[in-house]
Amino acid sequence: MKLVHEGDLLWEPSEARKQSTQIYHYMRWLKQHKNLEFQDYHSLWKWSVNNVESFWSSIWEYFDIQAKDSYHTILTSHQMPGAKWFPEATINYTEHIFRNRATSTRPAIIHTSENRTTEEVSWQKLYQDTVAMQQTLKELGINKGDRVVGYIPNIYEAVVSFLATASLGAIWSSASPDFGTQSVIDRFQQIEPKLLITVDGYRYGGKNFDRTEVAAKIQSSLPSLEATIAIPYLDEHATFKKLSAVTYWDQVIKQEQAQTLTFEYVAFNDPLWVLFSSGTTGKPKPIVQSQGGILLEHLKALSFHVDLDETDRFFWFTTTGWMMWNFLIGGLLTGSAIILYDGNPSYPSKNKLWQLAEETKMTVLGTSASYITACMKEELEPKEQFDLSHLYNISSTGSPLPPEGFQWCYENVKDDLWIASASGGTDVCTAFILGVPTLPVYAGELQCRGLGAKIESFNAHGKSQIEEVGELVLTEPFPSMPIYFWNDEDGTRLRDSYFDVFSSIWCHGDYIKITERNTCVIYGRSDATINRGGVRIGTSEIYRAVDHVQSVADSLIVDIPARNGDSFVPLFVVMKEEQELTSEIKQIIKQQIRTHCSPRHVPTEIYQVPDLPKTLNGKKLEIPVKKLLMGKPLDQVVNKGSLSNEASLDAFLEFANHLKV
Q: Where is the Acetyl-coenzyme A synthetase N-terminal domain (predicted)?
């Protein structure tokens, strides 16, 4: 692969491509209807963040938001937390989804899994099934404000269940069946659901995982439950004998039903769903976002920053336990077809997602940086094996995509490709920093700060800076910020999570550099940064350097303060199959870090481990590992149910027991 450096220009859109985009159409609309003219994206962004009321009211008007009661106030205050958007308005999220149903030619959903064949679902069928589910929810006594929880994979039934829940003004939350039992209970108990929707199990990597006993344990642990809906997914003949008061999915869909959906209009700032933080320490935070805030943000982000319209087929590899599932469902707001996949993205080979892209005529492929770098290390060449002619965008999130990941896509997937690396989070259920189809792509850089998101890089004194690495902060209110945390009546937990570093400023916990040309580079979590001799460096830079070593599969580095005022910096590596960490390989790794980062950031020592602890969404547990090695008890630093690989902690526990810093 050709050598690439951070900031190298890799792709530019043609003028015809720019003029075909959704954001170009919006800019023309602003000129025609608001007498506002912008020469480029960055001037548009500056207007959007310096005039947030005007910007978000233009989004309301441009997308023709349907409201039973309209608004008089756009924003109650610029003070955070506590700012409220469009407080007088009443809306319904699901109503906006089905504005796109008047078609019989395009699918709404394409879904497939390891134990289901690929199927296209029409807008009309999605509507009819949502009507049937809504009728069932009404019969089960679900009303506005009630909580409905899904212990369910990324399958069609999950989308139907969510849309019906939101149509009634009820509140949705979901967990993937690969979550640990206690992890699911820790989430759902906090919000006291009235209804549980569950499957009997799932298939992953060619193996079946029965979850009927887990479902029964979850049910018995939720005294607030009044009903349960069961979906035979792993086994179509599953009987759920250990569950009580069960309604089966075929009863839901086949019942006599009303012909039209009804919509419960709720206040703009009423809850739509509860998302949970990864819960790596303590119980997961129950993050509540509003019907209106999510509606506006997802319309904006998916239309302008992902460039979706009714011709698109939009995919993101996700589970129902990650906010990207909620973001993926938002694709329906644009009229796009969304693609659901439940299974292992690397089974039976790492080409699985590229094969799916060909089969479904995918236009936008959303995945993780780790999947792309894994394909790169496997030296895959998807363009040689698959027809990817429909694919025009690869979006990546979860961790920073290194420059080599960008370059690999252009050399091995498609040379005319818009690559959009994105960064945001569960906290806002979107990306703050992401792509836009009218700008060039530079290696290792995120194209832009999102419209309406006043992102800045602050130094330790709270001063904004350019071309310097600092704290990622948001200095103006943003509609999809949490309206509150569940059971956090006085707001203490929310303030401690985002507003305890800078007064009335959202501090996100990432290190960011904003360049002179307004692109951004994310350097990992700010509290996991490596600090050697006062010089800080993000962990992503270390990982990028280690990725150059072919025999290394993955790595994790932490910075442990030492009693003498210095620090101990161990690097843990997972070696590729049949490879061992030798003294020679250690020297190669150190040389790569010395060359690509700096001599002072060479680790104190390098250790081989069988696996790295990661969340179910694939994020490395840098901070919990750091705390563990600093002597904190295991139960205080990590919720084992939040891990995809609990046994991976064993090596770190043993290491911690022998560590003297």
A: 41-96
